[in-house]
Amino acid sequence: MLELWIMFSGAFLAATLLPGGSEVLLVGLLTQQPQAWMNLLIVASIGNTLGAVTSYYLGYVGRFAKSPEDFKHKHYQKSVAWIEKYGTWSLIMSWLPLIGDILCLIAGWLKLPIGRSILMILIGKTIRYSVIVVGFMYFS
């Protein structure tokens, strides 16, 4: 049970704008308890999704820029371009390092529909963790 809370916390924090490597944590916990792979996958996906929703919310309430052009950094510009082109579908890529966190933040800033946004984030995060779990099971 403690492992699941550790996994949830690590995945949640890694999905916010704080640095973190929940993938390494997942593999470490799988090494200790490979039979708990499904529980770890579910908890990691939910924790990481809720962390991303936190970033979405910060963007939603923050309104820290007046227009997309106010984001000077290339990661912000790329994220804005993806969201403008693909809408909520771009949030499937929220698992990507650096850009994924920014995608969620800007999605909130642009006030994309929350239900579809959470669904797309959950799909992307679950696919990423599923690949890690399958890779671990195959190679260990």
Describe the structure.
With 140 residues, the protein is mostly helical. The protein has one domain (2-139). It contains six helices and no strands. The protein has helices spanning 2-15, 22-32, 37-62, 74-86, 99-109, 114-139. α1 (2-15) runs antiparallel to α2, α2 (22-32) runs antiparallel to α3 (37-62) and α3 packs antiparallel against α6. The two termini are 23 Å apart. The relative contact order is 0.17. The model has no long low-confidence stretch (mean pLDDT 89).
Keywords:
mainly alpha; 140 residues; 72% helix
- Domains, number: 1
Instruction: Assign an overall shape.
Output: elongated
Q: State the end-to-end distance.
A: 23 Å
Radius of gyration from the alpha-carbon trace, in angstroms:
15 Å
Poorly predicted segments:
none
Biggest sheet descriptor: none
Name the structural class.
mainly alpha
Number of helices: 6
Total DSSP E strands: 0
> Mean pLDDT, as a whole number?
89
Instruction: Please trace the helix and strand order, writing H or E for each element.
Output: HHHHHH
Helix amount:
over 70%
How much strand content do the residues show? under 5%
